[in-house]
């Protein structure tokens, strides 16, 4: 096989054993002496035309394909793109291997017939050499030159078997009348080609290569190869780079910000504290429901602190190798100490910080436990004058090991709750900034905050984004108020299912069901104020819904819970009043009611017979065992059932009395599909109670009042409800 590197680096050609010349680069320049020059006269039959008939600079013909129409070789090759280098490198590598395996440059392959007619019959052959029992090398006589063949050129041909070759050679020489003492000498050799040998080892080499690559890269991707797997994967941030979040981007959460700010101060000005004999706390756990801004707050700390900030996720300590977790913890702390003062932030610390000694037999836990132990040891190990502060975030502070929480480790516990209405308005203001809208953002933020009780910061961010997406879908130039309302509805109830067509009977059932909820809520004193009722199918299961505006309320009285249960049962009761049979549509309502009933009996101690006991088990310690006896279990079941049946009976009485109202609401619903509070007021008159909706209080009050601390807002339910 032939391959030549001509005067410019880009000119490569490879010739296979059959003489086929392949162009490696699309264009090539081919000016040097070509192998065809060695071809003897009269060999055109299988080598193409003799060179004598063509100038050397002409386009070379592939040796066994005289008619190939290759591009003009004199053209300059086009500029190579940079990523061609890799291809080129690979090709050159392959070429060298190929060359090593292939016969030498001047070797020409023949067939037996060509050998016979072109060489043997003309008496040009001096001797033959059988190589590896499958190939015959032909040595020409010295005087072959005079006949137009260079003796430097070696020819070879392949044979099926040595016996068949010997037979054919014998016959040929017999036919030529060569006496037996002058017959061609045939030698037999075995040659070991380096290339062939390398090829045999190729799979092994490949495997070794892959293993080497893996050790270089390291399964944990930590760099430093397989031996670097124990290195911590914490990312380091400086306030100058990457972190653009500042405390001003974290709306609300003022108490949490204050606490964190204190840590930042410890690190910036430790002398103020140390002067008075105080030791600097070692760590703080940020806990709270998902999406309340724990990570955001930690990032903002990085942005504000002005000290290096190492961020790592708890799960990054866990790897399939034993001992990696503790080793990464050690490494993290070692790096942090070198760069002190600094902050380490461990997100989702529950991945390693779960209470030890649970389910240890399941395997895999030991690794987690030793990682946690190492963390405890490290936190104990560094002195507070080393100025390394560890912050950790978790949604599940209840499952954390008590040893983590003791003073001296995570001294402070900062809990971040879902924002209240003022907090929500602040968060919405932050996320409204990038949104293009002409609506008065101040008023909008208040309104959206009032409509989104219980939403977390992440939900609110989602709503602002969703509104922009909805506006973009309708090709609007800017986001309108309605888009925000649609976004809330979408987040609460799911996407409108226009494709879901209900049969008229189903639609009627849904309308009476929702009207039942709405009317029950209308006449129950402690039920939340209604916002809208809809019979447009949404999400995966909801065929209709009634949306209420609950208050930001942290305590509920028994009366309130009862009214809520009755309102939730309203749909089912209405179905019973208006139709002979009941449907499966109330499943979700019944689940909610059951939950409220059981919670009253088992968690809130609100049942007289069961007494003031609470069996709630948030950390899931009693997974397989009930913390009460069979007898108490039966009592709980009976009491919960009684609660629900009583609520049902109460709702039935109420709705039977208000049957006419349900009829009116349902008919209007069937006509308009969506009813607002105003529609309800027009139909049924105002609610027979003094109503203080969040909406009225927060949105309709003068905008000049500061809502950071709405003075009377949290105490606003003077309708007899317990705060
Ligand atoms: P987690 O508490 O689960 O760590 P994140 O901090 O990741 O929650 O918050 C998710 C997103 O929610 C943030 O990227 C941000 O857009 C939004 N967010 C949450 N809380 C706030 C807040 N107080 N101010 C502004 N945005 C917030």
Question: What would you say this structure looks like, in words?
Answer:
This protein has 723 residues and is an alpha/beta fold. It folds into four domains: 2-45 and 102-196, name from scop, CATH 3.40.1690.20; 232-415, 3-Layer(aba) Sandwich (Rossmann fold); 421-493, Helicase, Ruva Protein, domain 3 (Orthogonal Bundle), CATH 1.10.8.60; 504-698, Up-down Bundle (Methane Monooxygenase Hydroxylase, Chain G, domain 1), CATH 1.20.58. The chain is built from 23 helices and 17 strands. It has a six-stranded mixed beta sheet. Strands 4-7-6-5-8 form a five-stranded mixed beta sheet, with helices on one face. The protein has a three-stranded antiparallel beta sheet with strand order 1-2-3, with no helix packed on it. Residues 1-82, 218-225 and 702-723 have low confidence and may be disordered. The structure holds adenosine-5'-diphosphate (ADP). Adenosine-5'-diphosphate (ADP) binds at residues 250-253, 290-296, 393, 427, 430, 457-458, 461.
State the main characteristics:
single chain, 723 residues, alpha/beta, name from scop, Rossmann fold, Helicase, Ruva Protein, domain 3, 4 domains, 6-stranded mixed beta sheet, 5-stranded mixed beta sheet, elongated, disordered N terminus, disordered C terminus, binds adenosine-5'-diphosphate, zinc, transmembrane, P-loop_NTPase
Short description:
In the N-terminal section; belongs to the AAA ATPase family. In the C-terminal section; belongs to the peptidase M41 family. By secondary structure, this protein is of the alpha/beta class. The chain has helices at residues 44-47, 84-101, 112-120, 162-175, 194-217, 254-268, 270-274, 294-305, 324-338, 350-353, 365-381, 402-405, 421-432, 441-451, 457-473, 481-493, 504-523, 558-578, 587-603, 630-657, 659-672, 677-684, 694-699; strands at 2-5, 12-15, 21-23, 107-110, 125-131, 135-140, 154-158, 186-189, 235-237, 283-287, 309-313, 342-347, 388-394, 412-415, 530-534, 545-548, 674-676.
């Amino acid at each position: 096989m032939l391959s030549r590197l001509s005067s410019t680096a880009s000119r490569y050609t490879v010739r296979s054993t059959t003489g086929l010349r392949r162009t490696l680069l699309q264009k090539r320049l081919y000016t040097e002496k070509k192998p065809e020059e060695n071809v003897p006269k009269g060999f055109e039959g299988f080598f193409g035309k003799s060179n004598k008939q063509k100038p050397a600079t002409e386009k070379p013909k592939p040796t066994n394909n005289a008619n190939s129409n290759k591009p003009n070789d004199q053209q300059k090759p086009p500029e190579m793109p940079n990523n061609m280098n890799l291809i080129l490198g690979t090709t050159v590598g392959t070429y060298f291997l190929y060359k090593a395996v292939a016969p030498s440059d001047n070797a020409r392959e023949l067939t037996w017939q060509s050998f016979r007619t072109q060489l043997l019959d003309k008496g040009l052959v001096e001797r033959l050499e059988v190589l590896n029992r499958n190939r015959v090398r032909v040595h020409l006589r010295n005087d072959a030159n005079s006949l137009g063949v260079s003796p430097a050129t070696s020819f070879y041909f392949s044979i099926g078997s040595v016996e068949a070759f010997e037979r054919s050679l014998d016959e040929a020489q017999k036919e030529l009348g060569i006496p037996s003492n002058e017959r061609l000498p045939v030698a037999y050799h075995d040659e070991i080609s380096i290339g062939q040998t390398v090829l045999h080892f190729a799979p092994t080499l490949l495997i070794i290569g892959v293993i080497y690559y893996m050790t270089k890269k390291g399964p944990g991707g930590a760099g430093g190869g397989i031996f670097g797997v124990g290195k911590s994967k914490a990312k380091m941030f400086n306030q100058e780079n990457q972190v653009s979040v500042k405390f001003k981007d974290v709306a609300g959460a003022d108490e949490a910000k204050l606490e964190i700010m204190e840590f930042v101060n410890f690190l910036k000005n430790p002398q103020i504290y140390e002067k008075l004999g105080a030791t600097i706390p070692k760590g703080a756990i940020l806990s709270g429901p998902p999406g309340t801004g724990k990570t955001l707050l930690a990032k903002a700390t990085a942005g504000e602190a002005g000290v290096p900030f190492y961020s790592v996720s708890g799960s990054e300590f866990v790897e399939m190798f034993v001992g990696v977790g503790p080793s990464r913890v050690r490494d993290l702390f070692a790096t942090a100490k070198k760069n002190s003062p600094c902050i380490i932030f461990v997100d989702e610390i529950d991945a390693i910080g779960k209470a030890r000694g649970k389910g240890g037999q399941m395997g895999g836990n030991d690794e987690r436990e030793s990682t946690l132990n190492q963390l405890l040891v490290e936190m104990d190990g560094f002195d507070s004058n080393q100025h390394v502060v560890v912050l950790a975030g978790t949604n599940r502070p209840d499952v954390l090991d008590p040893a983590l929480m003791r003073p001296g480790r995570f001294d402070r516990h900062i809990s971040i709750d879902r924002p209240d209405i003022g907090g929500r308005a602040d968060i919405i203001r932050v996320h409204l900034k990038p949104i293009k809208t002409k609506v008065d953002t101040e008023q909008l933020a208040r309104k959206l905050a009032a409509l989104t009780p219980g939403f977390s910061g992440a939900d609110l961010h989602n709503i602002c984004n969703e509104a922009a997406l909805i506006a973009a879908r309708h090709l609007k130039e800017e986001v309108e108020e309605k888009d925000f309302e649609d976004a809330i509805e979408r987040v609460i109830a799911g996407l409108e299912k226009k494709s879901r067509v209900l049969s008229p009977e189903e639609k009627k059932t849904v309308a009476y069901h929702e009207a039942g909820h709405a009317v029950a809520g209308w006449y129950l004193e402690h039920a939340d104020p209604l916002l809208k009722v809809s019979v447009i199918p949404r999400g995966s299961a909801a065929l209709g819904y009634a949306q209420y505006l609950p208050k930001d309320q942290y305590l509920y009285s028994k009366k309130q819970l009862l009214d809520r249960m009755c309102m939730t049962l309203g749909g089912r009761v209405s179905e019973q009043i208006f139709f002979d049979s009941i449907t499966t549509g109330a499943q979700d309502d019944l689940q909610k009611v059951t939950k409220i009933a059981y919670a009253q009996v088992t968690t809130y101690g609100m049942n007289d017979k069961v007494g003031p006991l609470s069996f709630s088990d948030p950390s899931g310690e009693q997974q397989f065992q009930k913390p009460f006896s069979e007898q108490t279990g039966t009592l709980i079941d009976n009491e919960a059932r009684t609660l629900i049946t009583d609520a049902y009976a109460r709702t039935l009485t109420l709705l039977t009395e208000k049957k006419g109202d349900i009829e009116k609401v349902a008919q209007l619903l069937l006509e308009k599909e969506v009813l607002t509070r105003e529609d309800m007021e027009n139909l049924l008159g105002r609610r027979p109670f003094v109503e203080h909706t969040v909406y009225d209080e927060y949105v309709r009050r003068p905008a000049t009042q500061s809502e950071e601390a709405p003075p009377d807002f949290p105490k606003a339910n003077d309708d007899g409800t317990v705060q």
